[in-house]
Design brief:
- With about 260 residues, the chain is of the alpha/beta class.
- About 50% of the residues lie in helices and about 15% in strands.
- It has 9 helices and 7 strands, in the order αβαβαβαβαβαβαααβ.
- It has a 7-stranded parallel beta sheet, with helices on both faces.
- β4, α5 and β5 form a beta-alpha-beta unit.
Length: about 260
């Protein structure tokens, strides 16, 4: 076997099934495409029933098996039902990418209880709910890889983002706890913490701050690698943590932010 073939085998996700939440746009759709390009079958979970089927077709055109599932990840009943359907459709569940997320740019006085609950349910509780359903199936299959999408603001604080910072800080430490609990079962759990990435979510964030998006991007690009991230930057990190290149990596917090935290 050539060196080239050995590397491809390490990266390959051939015959693996990956579940990606928030998969209809932004980081989620890029992650789904990248994993499909590595050979995985993809289950796309999102609440967006217009964009989701379009991403499904795009991934099928890459030659991968893909299916969109309408799912409100804040609801346990939705998560349990959808994972049951994915398991019946695809068989083994090998990779789970908990990516779905929202942001509310308010401080603790401005933020309502309903807004707090909404952010925490989607950003943090969904990670519990999907993992709760997927891990027993991964154990039956002999293991798997879970990648949780955190944030740089899960490691340090940020202004006017109290619920987001709390939820992403929870994701970071939940990742570590899950890695400890399930490593002996062959399940690796890691967290990717992006900086500002050019997505529709970033546009909504600028709007919440009443900022012109172009000027918002200029401020966001003020980092050692002077640009805003792309969804593909994050997708590449997820691929590394999903494949055999990272076979001895678990409980890690992988910062992908152009040096912003540095």
């Amino acid at each position: 076997m050539s060196v080239h073939s050995k590397i491809l085998n390490l990266i390959s996700l051939e015959s693996k099934t990956a579940i990606v939440t928030g998969a209809a746009s932004g980081i989620g759709s890029s992650v789904a495409r990248r994993l499909a390009e590595a050979g995985a079958n993809i289950a796309l979970l999102d609440i967006d029933e217009q964009r989701g089927p379009k991403v499904e077709k795009e991934i099928q055109q890459l030659g991968a098996k893909a299916k969109f599932y309408a799912c409100d990840v804040s609801l346990y009943s939705d998560c349990e039902s959808v994972i049951d359907g994915v398991s019946k459709e695809f068989g083994n569940l090998d990779i789970l990418v908990n990516n779905a997320g929202v942001i509310s740019r308010k401080d603790i006085v401005e933020l309502s209880e309903e807004e707090w609950d909404h952010v925490l349910r989607i950003n943090l509780k969904s990670v519990y709910q999907l993992s709760h359903s997927v891990i027993p199936r991964m154990v039956q299959n002999g293991g798997g890889s879970i990648v949780n999408i955190g944030s740089g603001w899960g490691i340090k604080g940020g202004p006017k983002a109290i619920a987001y910072c709390a939820s992403k800080g929870g994701v970071v430490n939940l990742t570590r706890a899950m890695a400890i609990d399930h490593g002996k079962q062959g399940i690796r759990v890691n967290c990717v913490c992006p900086g500002d990435v050019h997505t529709a979510l970033l546009e909504r964030e600028a709007a919440q701050m009443h900022q012109d998006f172009d000027s918002f991007l200029v401020e966001a690009a003020d980092r050692p690698i002077p640009r805003v991230g792309s969804p593909e930057d994050v997708a590449n990190a997820v691929l590394f943590l999903a494949c055999e290149l990272s076979s001895w990596v678990t409980g890690s917090v992988f910062v992908v932010d152009g040096g912003g935290l540095a």
